[in-house]
Automatic annotation (TrEMBL):
Naturally occurring in which organism (per UniProt): Roseovarius halotolerans
InterPro entries, alphabetized: MazG-related_GP37 (IPR011379), MazG_C (IPR041407)
Pfam families: MazG_C (PF18722)
Name used for this protein in its record: MazG C-terminal domain-containing protein
Domain MazG C-terminal: 195-378
Domain of life: Bacteria
Length: 384
């Protein structure tokens, strides 16, 4: 694919093809698509509002948020086009061929496409003005009858303003498309096992997280939990550290889930002394203090969210907002390579084991990195 990280450009036709399998709505679901489109345009506008309100305090995240929201907006435009049997790439081509744009011929760095047209709006308004117009154009789409003949002119008008918004915001369109492809495919498509990262397979065995493991967790009369691996106690005894007991004393389960499913847990590495010291730069950046704090922080953040949802009991999915927050939390660390649906698997399996651990005041955690699974077994009992 001509995509982010592989080429300086992303073909719109390839974008359409890449994101189509992530559309979980019915072919007849037009209203949810329109609502989603309107909502995403509102999110782009809200991002600009935050920059006005918070100024420098928000500047660091502004471009990232604009890129994401513009990508989400285009996802819904593409979804609407599919339902109308229209080509997104053809609509863009029609808009850009209208004569309202400055066109320049440029040398392209891709040898397969040595010459490219560079197209830009010739009379560009300030971003806020453009975004207000984009909101107005999206509102027009809400009332349209969903037939290609009547919807196409409104879509062309929307896309024309969308292109202006891209240019006025200063974000690279290829980054918008590439980021959206990574985001939605990572969330909704199951990746091939061979495409998933394994962060320590090239390191000596004593520096790898174990491929399989069993960790015994027991609770003593003092209310603290104790970990044992290969018959040896590891780590410190833990309590809930909160006035209203909630079982957080068993939270190491989440680190074990991360280790088994994501192949990542600086906390678990430290507990069993399997840090990657043969490469000091990896040990420093990925296995040491700050990375451990991130691992602990992610677990605490997810736990606080899970408490409001009965620790995900009876659920088979995790909210997109939570997964995106986690993705931002771990930015800059190797685990950011893990797709969102792998995080979802780690969270759901981890909390399934946690609920049983909490119910029985202990148990055995069984992890398998090759299968990317974690299971619970009662002390002296059956595996579940």
């Amino acid at each position: 694919m001509t995509g982010a990280g592989k080429s300086p450009h992303v073909l719109l036709s390839e974008y359409e093809k890449a994101v189509a399998p992530t559309d979980r709505f019915l072919d007849t679901d037009v209203t949810p698509i329109l609502l989603g489109l309107f909502g995403e345009v509102g999110s782009v506008m809200s991002t600009s509002k935050k920059l006005h309100r918070e100024k420098g305090a928000f500047a660091g995240g502004y471009m990232r948020d604009v890129e994401e929201e513009l990508g989400d907006t285009l996802w819904y435009v593409a979804a609407l086009c599919r339902r109308l049997k229209l080509s997104l790439a053809d609509l863009f081509a029609e808009v850009l061929g209208s004569g309202n744009y400055a066109v320049h011929i440029a040398a392209n760095s891709d040898p397969r496409h040595p010459v490219a047209q560079v197209i830009s709006a010739s009379d560009l308004a300030p971003l806020d003005t453009v975004l207000l117009r984009l909101g107005e154009r999206s509102a027009r789409l809400l009332g349209v009858e969903m037939e290609a003949k009547t919807a196409k002119p409104l879509l062309l008008d929307f896309i024309a303003v969308y292109i202006e918004a891209l240019q006025a915001s200063g974000v690279p369109f290829s980054t918008v498309l590439g980021g959206n492809i990574t985001k939605v495919t990572g969330r909704f498509l199951k990746p091939a096992a061979e495409d998933l990262p394994d962060f320590d397979s090239t390191f000596p065995s004593e520096e790898q997280l174990p491929r399989t493991f069993e960790i015994q967790i027991t609770q003593r009369p003092n209310g603290r939990s104790y970990l044992r691996w290969h018959g040896v106690f590891i780590g410190d005894p833990l309590s809930d550290n909160i006035a209203d007991p909630d079982g957080y004393r068993f939270h190491d389960v989440f680190h074990f889930a991360n280790a088994a499913i994501l192949h990542w847990s600086p906390t678990f590495r430290a507990l069993i002394k399997h840090k990657r010291k043969s490469k000091p730069e990896v040990d420093e950046a990925q296995d040491s203090g700050r990375a451990i704090v991130v691992d602990e922080g992610v677990s605490a953040y997810i736990f606080s969210h899970a408490k409001t949802l009965n620790f995900f009991e009876g659920q088979n999915s995790v909210s997109f907002d939570l997964l995106k927050a986690i993705q931002n939390f771990v930015r800059g660390y190797e685990v950011e390579q893990c797709p969102l649906n792998l995080w979802e698997k780690a969270i759901l399996q981890g909390f399934e084991v946690f609920r049983q651990m909490r119910l029985n005041n202990g148990g055995i955690v069984i992890g398998n990195r090759d299968e990317r699974t974690i299971r619970y077994k009662q002390l002296g009992g059956e595996r579940t």
